[in-house]
Amino acid sequence: MGAKRFAAVDGQPGGGLRPVGDRGGSGSLIRNIYAITERELKSYFASPVAWIVTAFFIAMWGFLFAAIVASGREAVIRPLLNNFSVTFLLAGPLLTMRLIAEEARTGTLELLLTQPIREVELVLGKYISSVVFLMFMLLMTGYFATLLEMFGNPDEGPMLSGYLGVLLQGMAFLAIGLLASAFTQNQIVAAVVTFVTLLILWLSDSLANTVLSGTAADVVRYVSITQRFNDMPRGIIDTKDVVFFLTIVVGCLFLTTQVLTARRWR
C-alpha cells in the first residue's frame, strides 16, 4: 500500500497536516502542490506584512500616476511600469522572506521533509502562491489603467506588453527571494540577501555603462534586469528577454529544490 502524502493546509507556518495523496503519479503531484499553494495563500491574505506591502505598492503607483498624469496617453503608463522594479526591490524581499525561513525556524520544514512530500512540490507550491499574490497586486493597479482608458487614449499594445514585462520581472524577483529564504532560518537575513541581490542586478546596467568597459561591461550588461525589461513598456517583446527571466525562475527553483533535498538528508 502506498505511503500517504501530507501537506500543511492552514494559514499559519507550523499548522496542521492532512493527507493529500499517494506517492507517484501526476494526480498526487498536482494535489500536493495545490494544497501547499492554498495554505500559503491563506498565510499571505492573513499576514499584515503582505497587506502593508500591497498598500505601499499601490500607494507608490498612485503617487507616480498623479505626478505624471499631465504627460498624457501611453507615456503615462510607461513610467509607472518602468518604476515597477524600484518598488518591487523592497516589496519582493518582504513577500518571500518567510516562505521557507519561517518554516525552518518553527520546525515545520523538518516535519514536512520527513513526510513523503517531494521537495519540488513544496517549492512549486510556495512559489506559485507568491506569484498569485503578485498577480493580485498587479490587478489592483488595473484601476490606473482603467482611468487611462476612460479619460485618455492609451496605446494598448505597449500597456499589455509592459504588464507582461512587469509580471516576468516580478516572477524572477520572487524566485530569487525564495532561494534566499531556503538558506536561512532568519526572515530578516533572507530579506536582506534578496534585496542586495536584486539591487546588484538592477544596478548592473548603470555599472556597465559608467565603470566597466569591454567584455566585462558586456557580461554585466547581459544580466541587467532593467535592460531586459526596458523595451517591453514600449511594445517590444524580445524572446531573448522572456527566456532570460524564465531562466532565472527555473534556475532559482531548481537550486531551492536542491537546498531542501540536502536538508532532508542531513
If you had to describe this structure to a student in words, what would you say it looks like?
- The chain is built from 13 helices and 2 strands, in the order E-E-H-H-H-H-H-H-H-H-H-H-H-H-H.
- Helices cover 76% and strands 4% of the residues.
- The protein has a two-stranded antiparallel sheet.
- With 266 residues, it is mainly α.
Question: Mind sketching the topology for me?
Answer:
Elements (H helix, E strand, L loop, with lengths): L3 E5 L8 E6 L3 H21 L1 H21 L5 H9 L1 H13 L4 H6 L1 H7 L4 H22 L1 H10 L4 H27 L4 H24 L3 H9 L2 H6 L8 H26 L2
Antiparallel strand pairs: 1-2
Helix pairs in contact: 1-7, 2-3, 2-4, 3-9, 4-9, 4-10, 7-9, 7-13, 9-10, 9-13, 10-11
Concise structural overview:
The chain contains 13 helices and 2 strands, in the order E-E-H-H-H-H-H-H-H-H-H-H-H-H-H.
Attribute tags:
about 270 residues, mainly alpha, two-stranded antiparallel ribbon, 13 helices, 2 strands, about 75% helix
Q: How do the strands line up in the largest sheet? A: 1-2
The average pLDDT value, as a whole number, equals 82
Number of β-strand runs: 2
Using the CA coordinates, give the radius of gyration: 20 Å
Structural class of the helices, strands and pairings? mainly alpha
How many domains? Answer: 1
Question: What is the approximate shape?
Answer: globular
Major sheet characteristics:
2 strands, antiparallel
Helix content: over 70%
How many helical stretches?
13
